[in-house]
Structure formats: C-alpha cells, structure tokens
Amino acid sequence: MAAKKNDDLLKLKKQLKEGILAPLYVFYGEETFMRDMYVGRVSEQVPDGGFPEFNHIVLNGADIPFSDYDDAWESFPMMAEKKLIHIKDSGIFSSKRAAGGPSAEEKKEFWSEKFKRISDDTVVIFDESSVDKRSALYKAAAKAGTVVEFTFLSDADTVTWVIKQCLDAKKRISKENAYYLITLCDPGLSNINNELQKLLDFCDEEIYKSDIDRVVSKSMQVIVFELTDAIMAGNTQKAMSVLTDLKTVKENAFTLLYLMFSSFEKMLHAKLMQGYSQGEIASELGVSPYIARKYIDGARGFSENALVWMVRRVAEIDLEIKEGRIDDWSALEQYVMECIHFGKK
User: Fold this and answer.
1) What Cα–Cα distance (Å) separates residue 271 from each residue in 158, 220, 257, 295, 302?
2) DSSP secondary structure string, 8-72?
3) In whole angstroms, what is the distance from residue 334 CA to residue 331 CA?
4) Where are the beta strands (DSSP E) in the chain?
5) Which of 89, 99, 197, 343 is the most exposed place for a label (fewest CB within 10 A)?
6) What backbone phi and psi angles, to 5 degrees, belong to 266?
C-alpha cells in the first residue's frame, strides 16, 4: 500500500516536472499541507491569464447543484490556453448521500459522464478530505486521471522535512531537536510548520532544545498525554500539577475530559489490535505514526478492563455534570483520581 502511494506521488511529480498535466486529479487525505501545496503546484501550471474568475474556478462544498458543475465544465478559458476547476470537499466519492442531494444513481450517472468529457483546455482537481476507494466514481476518476493520497508522513520523513525547511531558511537544527519539535505538535505539517516558523523568526543560526521549550506551544493532545502518562505511573502529584496549570490558563474542563476519553478509547482500540503493525494501527486510528506509538505504549500500561472502565466512566460523569450534581472542574479532577486508583488494579 505504501509503495502504491509513493508511485502515485512520483507520477504526479513527473507530470509537474514535464509540464504534462492529467485532465483530472483527485487529491485526498489528512495531510492538508501537502494537498494544498500540490493543488498550488498544479494551479501554477495553469496560468489564469489575468482572469481568475473565468480560468481558475473554485467550487466548494457538497451542496453544489449539478448546473454549477455544468457551467464550469462547458465554459471556455478567457485569454488563456487552459482553465482550472478546483472542486473542494464535494463528497462525490463518498457512499453517503447528502441531505436533500441527488441519489447515488443520479450522482454516478452525472459524474461518470463528466469524467468522460473533460476537454483538452480543462484541468480538474478534486480536493477531498476523504474518499471511499470502493466507490464506482473513485474508480472511474482513477481511470480518467491521477489520484494521490496524502497521509501523515512517517516520523523519519517529518524530521527530514523539518531539517530541510531550516536549511532553506539558512538555519540548522539537529535530528534530535527536530524530532523533539514534532513530538510537541499536533500531527500534520501545517501544525508543525506554524511552530517552526515561530522558531525560525526567534532563533539565530541554530535551533536548540531550549529554544523549542521557550517558543513552541505544546499541543493540547501532548498535554493530555502527559496527564495519561501520570495516571499510568500512578503519579498523583504530577497529574494534579498538570490540571492546575490548565485550570490557571482557563482551559475548558469539559473539553479536556473528552480529550482524555478520546485518548483512552484509542488506547483501547490499539490494545485490541495487538499483532498489527504501528502503521496499520495509525491508519485505523487516523493519526500520525508518532501519535499511534503513544497510544500503543499507553495501551501497554493499562489493562483492558481499566481502559473499558475509563471510557465508560466518562458517559456517567457527563450525565452528572448535565444534571448539575457536580461542576466541570470537580468532575475532571475526580475522574483523574479515579483513573489513578483504577489503573493500579
């Protein structure tokens, strides 16, 4: 599967290098930074000729009527050789039917015909968050053009990307510090890039760990991992210290409770997938490889029964909060203490 993804990306890079574009592209996946970058690179090879409203048509959302697509398909480029149609999150490659939208059969008939009738002066990009690879329309699009899935990069590739960005900015960062940086960020190059730009603006010739600690904002997911690690270790003082810091900066207790719920739920999922590779677990959970490893390590630190209890307990606490029997922060602190106690069993 990984080899197929690499082949698709290499095919795209070859087309861009040679300036020979496919009539149709489907870009999809959770790595939005890469998707946006390649949408931009394809767009650069279709100049708008000074008339972007005619030559770079953007259709956004799943509720676009067929007539709007017809108008885009049938229009002629204005003072340019080609026009680009950029379709964002259309949902046409999903098996789900949009409320009030066309039936699956109507959608299949309309788009199958459209894929067959892309004129030589048109390049179409479908820019989708997700697709159903089993759908007939996905298969038809793959046959008509080029499809590329943009997944989160591996830890090693992300480190390499960070180092390259620093070199391009004429600055240095060690592999160890590049890895440390990505462990503090939410998954995805967009999130990492936001923090990296702050570092590049702040630092001189080299980025050190002390700079990262000073400048980079830890993601909430990383903070939740610190909390679950403290629970796993039975370290009440550390767990309460994390909660106190979060309360001081006025984080939402209800949000934190559900982030913990999500973490324990994914740990349970990872535990039930024992025997699968880290990559397979990451794909199943829809997270980066680094985050998947955190869930796998966390799953080892708790019994299956403990994780089941931690997940179920949140629903009970949710009801207690909604019925006014306990306030948000007291409920969160109580839950953490209960998890520490139950995790020792």
Assistant:
1) 26, 23, 21, 9, 9
2) HHHHHHHHHHHT---SEEEEESS-HHHHHHHHHHHHHTS--TT-HHHHEEEEESTT--HHHHHHH
3) 5
4) 24-28, 56-60, 83-88, 122-128, 146-149, 172-173, 206-207
5) 99
6) -70, -35
The average pLDDT across 136-162 equals 93
Tell me the β-bridge partners of 88: 60, 127
Strand, helix or coil for residue 146? strand
Tell me the whole-structure pTM to 2 decimals.
0.80
Confidence of residue 105 (pLDDT cuts 50, 70, 90): confident
Give 17-26 pLDDT, tens digit per residue. Answer: 999 999 999 9
Closest CA to 153 of 145, 165, 169: 165
Residue with tokens 């059969």: 105
**Counting Cβ atoms within 10 Å, is residue 49 exposed (0-12), middle (13-18) or buried (19+)?**
middle
DSSP secondary-structure letter at 323?
Answer: T
Q: For 45-90, how does the pLDDT look when each residue is reduced to its tens digit (9 = 90+)? A: 999 989 999 999 999 988 899 999 999 999 999 998 999 999 999 9
